[in-house]
Design goal:
The chain has seven helices and 20 strands.
Length: about 300
C-alpha cells in the first residue's frame, strides 16, 4: 500500500488532515528537518489510540512529537508515522494538583497552575516543550525538574494496553527517565502546592528574564545540545575550546551560550551534526570528556 492510500485510510479516524511527506522543519523549534512519510495530529484520546493502533496494524515505525523542541530531524526525513500531540492539550485542575494531556505545552500548564494558585512548576517557565515530552526526558533547569513534581503518568504500552505508573514506578535521572521504555505517555499528573499567585507570577517573570539574558532565544534552536557532564557544565567546556561562533553552513555555535547551536536561516541537519562532531572531538581532546547529546536525533541522512 502506498503512502497516499495509507493516508486516506488513516484519515477516516481523524478530524484534522493527514499529511504525506510533510516537512518536519515546519514543526521543530530548530526549523530543521526532512519529510515525514505520514504526519497526523489527533485531537482526542480516541484519535490518539486510533493512530497508535493504525501504526501497529500496518507495521509502520511510530514517532511521537510534541512541540518539536529538543529534536534534530535529519535531512532525509523520517519513515513511518509521526504523531504530533500538540492538538491534544487538555489541562484539568484536580484537588491534589493538575492532570494534563501529553500535548499540553508547559507554558499552558504553568498558566493554569498560576491562575489557581498552584506552585511547583515555575522552574519550567520558558521551556518550549509539551508536558509529555518534558516528563519523558525529565526536563528541567537548575531550579528544578519534572521529576520533582510528578505524581503519576498514564502510558500506552507497545502492545496497546494502558497502564498507570505511580511516581515510585518511574526511574528519574538527569534528563532521562524509564518512561522511554514504558510506552507512549498519555496523561501526566503533577503534585502541586498552594502558593500565592502573585509569588508564582514573580518567580515566572524572574526565570523568563534569566533565560532571555543567557540564551539566544532570538534564533531558532533546540535548547541545550549536550547534557552537562557530572560536576561540570557542557557550555563551559565548549567555550573553553573556543567553539563559540563556529559555523557549518547556516548553523552556528551561539556566541551567547556555547551549549546552543542556532539556525541562522536555512541550516540543515548535516550542518548541525558537523558542529556536534567538531565540538565533541575538541572537548574530548582537551578535557577527556565525552559529551552526551541532550537532543534526540531522528531519521535518515541525505
Amino acid at each position: 500500500m502506498n503512502l497516499a492510500d495509507l493516508a486516506r485510510e488513516l484519515q477516516r479516524g481523524l478530524k484534522e488532515e493527514v499529511f504525506v511527506n510533510e516537512p518536519l522543519a515546519r514543526h521543530t523549534t530548530w526549523r530543521i528537518g526532512g519529510p515525514a512519510d505520514l504526519f497526523a495530529r489527533p485531537v482526542t484520546a480516541g484519535e490518539f489510540d486510533f493512530c497508535l493502533d493504525f501504526a501497529r496494524q500496518k507495521g509502520l515505525p511510530l514517532h511521537i512529537m510534541g512541540n518539536g523542541s529538543n529534536l534534530l530531524v535529519c535531512d532525509g526525513g523520517v519513515r513511518g508515522l509521526v504523531v504530533q500531540t500538540r492538538s491534544w492539550r487538555q489541562v484539568i485542575v484536580r484537588e491534589e494538583g493538575i492532570r494534563a494531556c501529553s500535548g499540553a505545552l508547559l507554558s499552558r500548564v504553568l498558566e493554569v497552575a498560576a491562575r489557581h494558585g498552584l506552585g511547583g512548576l515555575e522552574f519550567a517557565a520558558g521551556i518550549p516543550a509539551t508536558i509529555g515530552g518534558a516528563v519523558v526526558m525529565n526536563a528541567g533547569t537548575p531550579e528544578g525538574c519534572l521529576g520533582d513534581i510528578v505524581r503519576g503518568v498514564e502510558v500506552i504500552a507497545p502492545d496497546g494496553s494502558r497502564r498507570y505508573l505511580e511516581y515510585g514506578d518511574i526511574t528519574f535521572s538527569y534528563r532521562s527517565t524509564s518512561l522511554r521504555r514504558s510506552g507512549v505517555v498519555v496523561t501526566v499528573d503533577l503534585a502541586m502546592t498552594a502558593v500565592d499567585p502573585r509569588l508564582i507570577e514573580a518567580r515566572v517573570k524572574a526565570n523568563l528574564e534569566r533565560r532571555r539574558a543567557r540564551q539566544p532565544l532570538e534564533w531558532p534552536n533546540a535548547g541545550s545540545v549536550f547534557k552537562n557532564p557530572p560536576g561540570d557544565y557542557a557550555g563551559r567546556l565548549i567555550e573553553e575550546v573556543g567553539a563559540k561562533g563556529w559555523q557549518a553552513g547556516r548553523a552556528q555555535v551561539s556566541a551567547k551560550h556555547a551549549n546552543f547551536i542556532i539556525n541562522l536561516g536555512g541550516a540543515r541537519a548535516t550542518d548541525v551534526l558537523e558542529l556536534i562532531a567538531r565540538i565533541r572531538e575538541a572537548v574530548a581532546g582537551s578535557f577527556g570528556v565525552n559529551l552526551e547529546l541532550e537532543v534526540e536525533v531522528w531519521g535518515e541522512g541525505p
